[in-house]
Write a structure and sequence with these properties.
Blueprint lengths: L1 E4 L12 E2 L13 E4 L5 E8 L5 H7 L2 H7 L4 H7 L2 E7 L4 E8 L12 H8 L10 E9 L4 H15 L5 E6 L7 H6 L1 E2 L11 E6 L8 E4 L5 H5 L6 H8 L3 H7 L5 E8 L2 E9 L4 H7 L13 H7 L23 E2 L10 E2 L25 H4 L11 E9 L10 H8 L5 E7 L12 E3 L9 E7 L7 E5 L5 H8 L5 H14 L8 E8 L2 E10 L3 H7 L16 E9 L7 H11 L4 E6 L22 E3 L9 H4 L6 H4 L6 E6 L8 E3 L3 E4 L3 H11 L4 E3 L2 E5 L23 H7 L6 E4 L2 E5 L4 E4 L4 E3 L2 E4 L4 E2 L34 E3 L3 H14 L7 E5 L2 H12 L7 E4 L18 H14 L2 E3 L3 E5 L10 E5 L5 E4 L2 E5 L2 E2 L2 H9 L8 E3 L10 E3 L4 E3 L15 H12 L28 E7 L3 E7 L14 E5 L6 E7 L5 E8 L5 H5 ...
Parallel strand pairs: 7-8, 16-17, 23-24, 27-29, 28-30, 28-35, 30-31, 35-47, 37-44, 38-39, 38-44, 39-40, 46-48
Antiparallel strand pairs: 1-2, 1-16, 3-4, 4-5, 5-6, 6-7, 8-10, 9-10, 11-12, 12-13, 13-16, 14-15, 17-19, 18-19, 20-21, 21-22, 22-23, 24-26, 25-26, 32-33, 33-34, 36-45, 41-42, 42-43, 49-50, 50-53, 51-52, 52-53, 54-55
Helix pairs in contact: 14-15, 20-26, 30-33
């Protein structure tokens, strides 16, 4: 059951308790039910969405009687095109029955866009509309369970889809239906004789899932209602007394009402509503301007915001009315038995542009002066609230039956509001409500949802736009920032039905009561091959079952917010009327000059769509491939964009809404990887994800000469553009300076407070401003005589020519300063540090045409075990030797074992003109015009102070356990900021040893079970298991441009400590020399797996390709070792450009490898008691199997005779054929 209570923002006496379950389609029906066979057998069953893996079982249930009614059916194709497919399975997950439903009749009886007039003209079906009707396209069942299965499926579908009233079956045959269908369908009454050449049947909602009867609550209902509150009685009575329910019912007056809903005379739900609302607090916390602050409008507002209508809602009236516009009585049979409720005006509210916080596409902000309607004189409330709501779980999908009744209780108010705790899962009633965006200053731990009485109207009609609609469209979208672009495309549709490029355009409008409330403009998707190749669209569709012309691109979408709950239906109708099966919406990065790059008003439709992950692309050697290269449509270089998608299946697949406030501090690789996982969960919608970052979201480099720092190759500018994380998260620019664990908020520099429910700390480590030792430069003793200097923090003012580089913002700032103040002038640049970043920084200075003699590279002293040793940034001595030669050749001065002593000889450091260092020989004093500080990394002082003041355990770094928890259960942390607790006895390991992106993904995986109903929450693991720290497997990567013009890449397995030499185990594969600029080194472990990759080249090389080599066996690399030993491999760069290896670079090769392993595991050896190949190998290792032949020869022979080899070959050919558009260089069977 569901129980809902509200806080003090709504009523005087606060309620604070809430309990809900997830609102997921069929989530509430997935509990076990029973059906009875014709022979009396009882079976426990579950109703669920059909999966593609069910196709084989469904095919086996198709009988001649099925074909007679539904025709010949391609099940996979039907599952792709059906709006809803339902399967009934038993406890063993065996398919007992299946039904598929679509929004149009079967086959070619009538065009899918024209079925409505067809039914209205030929049958008594005047009430049937696309909103309340679905058509059965297939029903199959095991014969003994067919009747029970059909009834259970129909009951479940009606219960899951609140608007559905009729399920129709229109079949070209005149034969009688099979018995199961006869039990649930009845013939439609024909209006013509003879009628059309088909038979039509209908199943009514009221026969299986009738609407609930709603009436005023009475004191006599108390006893009937107490059992509904049973689970929450203790909590409620503890706060409000034993008789809180009776008191609530008795207290009814003009401002407070209570109602119950009944099923067969039994109360199954209760609702309490009140007109006493704290509107002042609501307006302080939420963006209620577009709704006039939930106040009645003053006459001045009405005069200024809406033209005076010419008539009383005449069909020809195209004027839109403000949200507070004139009201009138309506009488509609489409509203649930409601004859007298206030229409409240079909409003013109630009919801999409008034909801910047809901979906931050391109971080675009609307102009408030154009969009916000402020209350003037009126202080009359125009809203009432639901203060207590409870309903049995079996009836929760019928919660909307309460709405017409409660609006009758407040005939003079237009809005119903609900506030719910942010941690409460969304329940079905809220799916009809519009979420109101909170102010960024709001710390209220509740979400506000709003519903306008006009949303009760069911006359939501979608049709092709006509020229007479233009004035209404213009009036509706005039406040949108990109309305000119929309109207331009609409005019092109009217004139030629094509855009400027000749691509077909289609425009559709939505109307309610003959008033225009929405518009959609789409075009044919002409770039579908590029989309398929560059995005994982096949995670959502079987591409081969969709014709090219069935793919469309969403150009414009605008919908009145009071009908936002019809958004998916709007898109479903567009797909039907346009004869499309898929729609795509690209989001271009903000720096790209595209007319829809920052389309605010489209952000709301993103909630109906799913984000599509980009695919890693093979970098092809196009010249070598010649005519065997993939199509130019696939390999062409074009502006990157993020892709969103919806198809027919998804139009009836709701998302689970997560309102929990998830705050990530730090735009590090770890933090961004965490946010990416959450944002790309297709069935989840996170409304409150926030990133706090010192310089905001990472920027992009407009010039490669800005890259002063090395790269982790975690994500590129292209990756950021293709993911568009800013569409899903709020970004707060500032530094974390405090954590209030009691109030659960983060204090950001500037005074802003960011509340959280889950706080994720991923600040990492940064280069710190180096603090001089302060030793007098004129009396510097030898370094060996200096006392040990404790590490100190620099607290003085930072000189204007001192740059400590940590991120994109710092690099761009330094780049601009250098161009303006250094490059064309005289003076020295001092680069101070030991990491790889000092070398990439020197190379960037050289690329800026700074002469080498003006650059001084100063290395810190080498200390035992120091992470900033000069040697530690290059684990390969050859690379280190190459750098030494390159620096000498460029004329760069290199100084070793130097420690910063003074700036400007201890005087005012603004600006720095000289630097003094201690060294192991003579003191060093250098003239300085710019100081590039890359000396040592550590936890930022403000982050440390914040963590320490918050009483989080800090032991050199923030202490976490194996599940990322700090000592506060609501605060997690990951990345180089952290260390494992000492109880694990693993001080040699930390997150800094691993790939940061992988750590972020694992952090998200640890948090997702708290939100995702499809994942099982983690059970309590054995106590001993928590003593083991997780070991991650992906490569630790670094690379960049090094002095001498070298491109550098180093990928190696995670290690406890950086090692100067490779492990003894395994072998080396080495080609090229540093002198020729083609050095390529591989280290293979004792098992022949690639463990380290080092590339140093004067030419650019495909980094993403080479990273795919990590972890691969040398046999997979075309028997690399044997070829190398035979002298056949002279250059690894050329070797890995050959055609044979391109399949290994494919993004789906890992899936192919997994399939290979499954074949190996499942192959049974008949001559050895049907054991698997892996078990056979284990017997050989354990010496439990006597063989005469060589083990390899024996295993090969056994594998061939067992049929495993044939399966491997088939799977390999399928892999190449399915990915043919990428792997055109491989021959296919039948080619010759």
């Amino acid at each position: 059951m569901h129980l809902l209570c509200f806080g003090q923002i709504c009523i005087g006496k606060p309620f604070t308790f809430i309990r809900f379950s997830f609102a997921f389609l069929f989530q509430n029906q997935r509990k076990m039910r029973t059906i009875t066979s014709s022979g009396g057998k009882v079976e426990t069953v579950t109703v669920r969405r059909t999966e593609s893996s069910d196709a084989h079982a469904i095919n086996s249930l198709i009988s001649p009687a099925t074909v007679a009614v539904f025709g010949r059916v391609n099940v996979i194709h039907l599952l792709e095109k059906a709006n809803l497919a339902v399967t009934l399975s038993n406890a063993k997950n065996e398919v007992l029955a299946h039904a598929a439903f679509s929004d149009h009749p079967i086959g070619d009886i009538v065009d899918q866009a024209c079925w409505e007039p067809f039914l209205h003209d030929n049958y008594s079906a005047e009430k049937y509309t696309p909103l309340n009707t679905l058509f059965l396209h297939l029903f199959v069942a095991q014969p003994i369970f067919s009747i029970g299965s059909a009834k259970e499926i129909v009951r479940t579908v009606f219960n899951a889809i609140t608007e559905l009233q009729y399920i129709c079956l229109v079949t070209p045959t005149s034969r009688c239906l099979e018995r199961a269908l006869e039990k649930i369908f009845e013939p439609m009454k024909s209006l013509k004789d003879p009628g059309p050449q088909c038979s039509a049947f209908v199943c009514h909602r009221h026969s299986y899932c009738p609407r609930l009867h709603v009436r005023r609550a009475r004191v006599e209902d108390h006893d009937d209602l107490t059992h509904i509150f049973a689970e929450q009685t203790k909590a409620l009575t503890g706060s409000y007394g034993t008789y809180f329910l009776a008191e609530l019912i008795e207290a009814q007056d003009d401002e407070n009402h209570a109602a119950v809903c009944e099923n067969e005379g039994t109360a199954v739900g209760f609702i309490s509503v009140s007109g006493d609302i704290n509107l002042k607090l609501l307006n302080e916390c939420f963006e209620l301007g577009p709704f006039n602050g939930l106040y009645k409008p003053s006459p001045e507002d009405l005069t200024e915001t809406a033209p005076e209508p010419e008539g009383e809602g005449t069909p020809g009236d195209t004027n839109t009315i403000s949200p507070q516009g004139s009201t009138g009585e309506v009488s509609s049979q489409d509203v649930d038995q409601t004859k007298d409720f206030d229409q409240g005006g079909i409003t013109e509210i630009p919801s999409e542009v008034s909801e910047p916080g809901d979906s931050q596409a391109c971080a675009a902000k609307p102009q408030g002066s154009e969009l916000t309607l402020k209350p003037r004189v009126s202080v009359t409330p125009n809203a009432f609230c639901i203060q207590l709501f409870v309903i049995y779980k079996n009836f929760e999908m019928r919660s909307v039956d309460f709405l017409p009744n409660i609006f009758k209780l407040f005939p003079d108010r237009d809005f119903c509001i609900i506030s719910v705790p942010k941690l409460a899962p969304e329940f079905p009633l809220l799916q009809s409500f519009l979420r109101v965006v909170p102010h960024h200053t709001s710390s209220l731990p509740q979400e506000l949802y709003i519903f306008h009485r006009s949303g009760l109207l069911k006359t939501f009609v979608v049709s092709l736009a006509v020229s007479a609609d233009r004035p209404a469209v213009c009036d509706m979208v005039k406040r949108l920032s990109l309305h000119e672009s929309l109207l331009e495309d609409l005019d092109m549709f009217y004139q030629a039905h094509r855009d400027k490029d000749g691509t077909p355009l289609q425009a559709f409008v939505a109307q309610v009561q003959n008033q225009l409330v929405g518009i959609v403009i789409i075009r044919n998707e002409e770039d579908i091959d590029y989309i398929r190749a560059n995005y994982n669209i096949e995670n959502f569709i079987y591409f081969s079952h969709h014709r090219y012309e069935e793919h469309g691109q969403l150009c414009h979408f605008a919908l009145n917010p009071i009908f936002q709950h019809y958004a998916k239906h709007f898109l479903k109708e567009v797909l039907r009327l346009a004869h499309k099966s898929c729609l795509y919406y690209p989001i271009y990065p903000s720096y790209h000059n595209q007319k829809n790059s920052c389309a605010h008003y489209l952000t709301s439709v993103l909630n109906c769509m799913v984000p599509v992950r980009p695919r890693r692309q093979i970098v092809y050697p196009l010249e070598e491939l010649g005519i065997n290269a993939p199509s130019k449509q696939i390999t062409k270089d074009q502006v990157s964009y993020a892709l969103n998608h919806i198809n027919r299946k998804l139009t009836m697949e709701p998302k689970v809404t997560i309102n929990a406030r998830i705050v990530v501090v730090g735009a590090s690789d770890t933090g961004l990887a965490f946010l990416e996982v959450l944002a790309f969960c297709p069935h989840l919608r996170f409304n409150n994800m926030t990133l706090i970052s010192t310089h905001g979201f990472p920027g992009y480099y407009t010039n490669e000469k800005m890259r002063f720092l090395s790269m982790s190759h975690s994500s590129s500018d292209r990756d950021h553009a293709q993911m568009s994380l800013r569409s899903w998260i709020n970004v707060v620019t500032g530094k974390m300076v405090g954590i209030d664990r009691a109030a659960k908020h983060v204090l950001v520099s500037g005074g802003r407070k960011v509340p959280y429910d889950h706080l994720i700390l991923c600040t990492g480590q940064q280069y710190q401003v180096s603090c001089p030792t302060g030793v007098d430069g004129s009396h510097l003793p030898p370094k060996s005589q200096l006392p040990a200097q404790p590490r100190r923090r620099y607290t003085g003012p930072v000189p204007s020519n001192l740059f400590t580089l940590n991120d994109h913002h710092d690099c761009v700032t330094a780049y601009q300063w250098l161009l303006n103040n250094f490059v064309e002038l005289k003076g020295n640049a001092i680069v101070y540090g030991n990491t790889i970043d000092v070398y990439t920084c020197v190379e960037t200075l050289l690329c800026l045409d700074v002469q080498g003699y003006r650059i001084h590279l100063v290395h810190l002293p080498t200390t035992e075990g120091s992470s900033c040793s000069p040697r530690s940034c290059f684990s390969n001595p050859t690379v280190e030797k190459a750098m030494k030669k390159a620096l000498e050749k460029s004329g760069v001065h290199v100084h070793h074992n130097c420690l910063l002593a003074q700036m400007n000889d201890g005087q005012n450091p603004e600006p720095i003109t000289s630097l003094s260092f201690t060294s192991d020989s003579q003191p060093l004093r250098l003239e300085c015009s710019v100081f590039m500080n890359l000396s040592s990394k550590g936890v930022d002082y403000d982050a440390f102070k914040t963590i320490n003041d918050a009483c989080l355990v800090y032991d050199g770094r923030l202490v976490i356990d194996t599940t990322f928890h700090t000592n506060d259960s609501t605060i997690r942390a990951a990345g180089p900021l952290t260390k494992f607790a000492r109880r694990y006895l693993a001080d040699q390991w930390s997150h800094s040893s691993f790939n940061s992106r992988e750590v972020g993904q694992e952090l998200a995986a640890a948090l997702l079970p708290f939100f995702d109903p499809t994942l099982e929450p983690a059970v309590n693991s054995p106590a001993d298991l928590d003593r083991l720290i997780p070991i991650y497997t992906q490569a630790k990567i670094q690379g960049g441009r090094l002095p001498g013009g070298y491109s550098y890449l180093h990928a190696t397995k995670p290690e406890q400590r950086p090692s100067a030499v490779h492990p003894v185990e395994g072998r080396e594969i080495l080609t090229g020399r540093i002198e020729t600029g083609n050095y390529f080194h591989l280290h293979l472990n004792q098992y022949g797996m690639v463990e380290t990759i080092t590339c140093l080249s004067l030419k650019p090389f495909p980094v993403s390709n080479y990273l795919c080599l990590y972890g691969k066996h040398e046999l997979l690399l075309n028997r690399l070792c044997s070829r190398y030993d035979e002298g056949l491999v002279h250059d690894l760069y050329s070797y890995f450009r050959e055609k044979w290896c391109l399949a290994i670079y494919h993004d789906r090769f890992a899936d192919f490898e997994q399939e290979m392993h499954q074949i190996m595991e499942s192959t049974k050896v008949q001559d050895h008691n049907d054991v698997s190949i892996s078990e056979l190998v284990q017997r050989m290792v354990d010496e439990k199997l006597d063989i005469i032949e060589e083990p390899n020869v024996f295993l090969k022979k056994v594998f061939e005779t067992s049929g495993g080899l044939a399966s491997l070959k088939t799977s390999t050919l399928n892999y190449l054929r399915y990915n043919r558009y990428h792997l055109t260089m491989y021959a296919q069977p039948g080619l010759l």
